[in-house]
TrEMBL record:
GO terms for cellular component: cytosol. Residues 11-302 form the NADP-dependent oxidoreductase domain. It comes from Rhizobium azibense. Keywords: Oxidoreductase. Pfam families: Aldo_ket_red. This is Aryl-alcohol dehydrogenase-like predicted oxidoreductase.
Amino acid sequence: MTIENLQIPTVALGTWAWGDSGETGDGYFGSTLTKASLEDVADKALAAGFTLWDTAVVYGMGRSETVLGQVLKRFARSDYQLSTKFTPQAAGASENPAADMLEQSLARLGTGYIDLYWIHNPADVTRWTPHLIPLLKSGKVKHVGVSNHNLSEIALANQILGEAGFRVEAVQNHYSLLYRSSEDAGILDHCRNHGIPFFAYMVLEQGALSGKYGPENPLPEGSRRAETYNAMLPQLKTLTDKLASIGEKQGAAAPDVATAWAIAKGTTPIIGMTRPDYINGLVRATSMTLSSDEVAELEALADAANVNTRGWWEKEMRA
């Protein structure tokens, strides 16, 4: 069975915040987004050559997919790639909940197929991974990956898919300067050794590594990210200052350097896109080169900050 190669971008476009309704206290990000501004984001992204959009059913329980579908309908389907996710924890009780969830995603996104479909969080790898096989055979899913799986779960999922002539074609985990558990657990090495693309989410830690926020200018009150990060902003200042100073030397800003770090580590960062000017940052990040000394210095400062940014939905990556 031939598997058409997945096109791996240098950077993927994240739409987690597109699931926020814009109401204070509703959602992780406290973002007020308009369709017009998101259309500007999409126009600018595609013009710059960034074409893979990452979403999920559970981002606003369908809102992110719906908005993304509306924003992208002005473009030819061949102009972009879609990445979305099956979440076992949100599965219905029907005979085939994965197929049902996929159909709902296809309808919201206004498309007939998904380029990259993920099992979002591991629940029971033996139970849920086989559900991907008929979706691949149907052509409605072109490629599959696993998200938030540890090394043994990745290997088990790959074994199950392999028996049907498929394989795990991508891994997506939380990975940032502040949270390198996938590296510590050997997952990055495993992916590198087996030619599996690794997608890194929360590279900017929901804005906490952007340099935009600090003790005097905290994250938006009423948002989940404010609850998580505002207390640790003082500990992050030395790191974000260093990100900014490295950026200044290359005509870039702190978030561009954090993104460039993730690229330098051999990953594809998924960067949340809520404003058109963020695309300029991606252009800068993808053209930037960090020295090994700069990478080591950033990691040392991140370690010294001594914070734990593991999400409530995430388990330890060490098996």
